[in-house]
Amino acid sequence: MMLSMARNVKKQRWDSNGIKALRRHLSLTQNEMAARLGTRQQTISEWEMGMYRPRGASVTLLSIVADSSGFKYDASPTQSEKKD
């Protein structure tokens, strides 16, 4: 089921605000969110502080979790990001 969901989920660009909003929407701590995504709590913290952005499989997992929980967040790139 997870694989079929991954094919149907539109990948989004996740920023610090979106990640924090998703975690709060799910009522999870950073530790619980990390466990759900298979990463470290420090990684979640760094994403939320804007030090780094998720890449690759992490983007897909965030999108799957968001979609399956009914979380709506527009993390599409801004005009300035599209020029980079």
The mean pLDDT is 83
Number of strands: 0
How many structural domains are formed by the residues?
Answer: 1
Uncertain runs: 1-6, 79-84
Radius of gyration equals 12 Å
The SSE order reads: HHHHHH
Topology (elements, then pairings):
Layout (H helix, E strand, L loop, with lengths): L1 H7 L7 H10 L4 H8 L3 H8 L8 H12 L10 H5 L1
Helix pairs in contact: 3-4
Describe the structure.
The protein contains six helices and no strands. The chain is mainly α. It has one domain: 434 Repressor (Amino-terminal Domain). Helix 3 packs across helix 4 (41-48). The chain starts with a helix and ends with a helix.
Question: What's the gist of this structure?
Answer:
This protein is mainly α. It is 60% helix and 0% strand. The protein has a single domain, classed as lambda repressor-like DNA-binding domains (434 Repressor (Amino-terminal Domain)), CATH 1.10.260.40.
